[in-house]
Design a protein that fits this description.
Blueprint (H helix, E strand, L loop, with lengths): L9 E10 L2 E11 L4 E5 L6 H8 L7 E6 L2 E2 L4 H7 E4 L11 H11 L5 H11 L15 H12 L6 E5 L7 H16 L3 E6 L2 H7 L2 E6 L2 E6 L1 H7 L14 H9 L5 H10 L1
Parallel strand pairs: 3-8, 3-9, 6-7, 7-8
Antiparallel strand pairs: 1-2, 1-4, 4-5, 9-10
Helix pairs in contact: 3-4, 3-5, 5-6
The structure holds adenosine-5'-triphosphate and magnesium ion.
Membrane topology: Peripheral membrane protein
Protein name: Glycosyl transferase family 8
Keywords: Antibiotic resistance, ATP-binding, Nucleotide-binding, Transferase, Transport
C-alpha cells in the first residue's frame, strides 16, 4: 500500500477544466516530488491559476484526478486543505494591521496555540522583526510579498502554492522572495509556483513544466529543457568599439611603454 508519506507531494492525471465553451485544461499530467520546487510556466491565460485553484480545492475539475500530499482533491478536500497553503496572485495582506497582527490573525484562524510566538518566529525567519510593529500599508512591495508568504506558512503546511509570487516586484524584491522560496524547499516544504518569468524558473525550480493550449508540452529539469534547444551557435557580430577600446588603441594598452620597449628590443 502506498502511504501518504511515500506518495509524491502532487500528482495530477488527465486534468480537464472548461469555462463554458473555453477549454482551458485539456488533459494536464504532472508529478511534483516532495521537498522540491516545481515551476509551472505559461503565458497569460494559459490556465496556471486555474490549475492551482483545482489543486487547492477552490475549483472542481471536469475530469481527471489530482492528489496533493496523498489526498484526492475531489473526495478528500478537507485533508488537502490541511496540507496546503495558497499565496494568490494578489497579496492577501491586511493593510490596516501591522505585520505581526496579520500573522497572529492567521494563527488564530488556524487554531494554533500561542499565536504570538508563531508570529514572532515567522517575523524573525523572514527578516521582518523590525517592521513587525508597523502597518503593512507602509511596507515595500518585497516586504509585503514576504509577509504574504510568511502568512501562508503559519501552521507549517507541507505543500505550498505560490501563484506568480514576484509579479510586479523590482529586481531586489524578487531576489528576496527567491531566497525565501529556496529556504522553504531547503526545510522540506514542497513548492509549486507559477510564473511568466523564465529566469525565475531557472533560478528556483528543480523541475519546470510549460502549460500551453491546455496541456503540459514540456516537463523536465532545466538541463533537460536546455537540451531540447538546438546547440549554441557561434556568430560573428560587428561590434562598435567602446570609448575605452578607442582610448587604448590610441595610447597603447600600457600607456605607450610597449612601443618604447619594442624599439629597445629591436635594437
Ligand atoms: N471564472 C472564470 N470564468 C470564465 N473564464 C475564466 C474564469 N477564470 C479564468 N477564465 C479564463 O480561463 C483562461 C485561463 O485563465 P487562468 O487565470 O487560469 O490563466 P493564467 O495562466 O493564470 O493567466 P495569468 O498569467 O494571466 O495569470 C483565461 O482565458 C481566462 O480568461
Ligand atoms: Mg494566473
Amino acid at each position: 500500500m502506498m502511504t501518504t508519506q511515500q506518495a509524491p507531494a502532487i500528482q495530477v492525471r488527465g486534468l480537464e477544466k472548461s469555462y463554458k465553451e473555453l477549454r482551458v485544461l485539456r488533459g494536464v499530467d504532472l508529478t511534483v516530488a516532495r521537498g522540491s520546487i516545481f515551476a509551472l510556466l505559461g503565458s497569460n491565460g494559459a490556465g496556471k491559476t486555474t490549475a492551482v485553484k483545482i489543486l487547492s480545492t477552490l475549483l472542481r475539475a471536469d475530469a481527471g484526478t489530482a492528489r496533493v500530499n496523498g489526498f484526492d482533491v475531489a473526495t478528500q478536500a478537507a485533508d488537502v486543505r490541511e496540507s496546503i497553503s495558497l499565496t494568490g496572485q494578489f497579496a492577501a495582506v491586511d493593510e490596516i494591521l501591522t505585520g505581526r497582527e496579520n500573522l497572529v490573525l492567521v494563527a488564530r484562524l488556524r487554531h494554533l496555540e500561542n499565536p504570538g510566538k508563531v508570529a514572532d518566529d515567522l517575523l524573525d525567519r523572514f527578516s521582518l522583526t523590525d517592521a513587525g510593529g508597523r502597518k503593512a500599508s507602509t511596507y515595500s512591495g518585497g516586504m509585503r510579498r514576504r509577509l504574504d508568504i510568511a502568512m501562508s506558512l503559519v501552521g507549517n503546511p507541507p505543500v505550498i502554492f505560490l501563484d506568480e509570487p514576484t509579479t510586479g516586484l523590482d529586481p531586489q524584491a524578487r531576489i528576496e522572495v527567491w531566497q525565501t522560496v529556496k529556504e522553504l524547499a531547503a526545510r522540506g516544504t514542497t513548492v509549486l509556483l507559477t510564473t511568466q518569468y523564465l529566469d525565475e524558473a531557472e533560478q528556483l525550480a528543480d523541475r519546470i513544466a510549460i502549460l500551453h493550449e491546455g496541456r503540459i508540452i514540456v516537463d523536465g529539469t532545466l538541463a533537460e529543457l536546455k537540451r531540447l534547444l538546438p546547440p549554441a551557435k557561434v556568430e560573428y557580430v560587428e561590434k562598435q568599439p567602446t570609448l575605452e577600446e578607442i582610448f587604448l588603441a590610441l595610447v597603447g594598452a600600457d600607456g605607450g611603454k610597449a612601443h618604447d620597449r619594442n624599439i629597445g628590443t629591436d635594437a
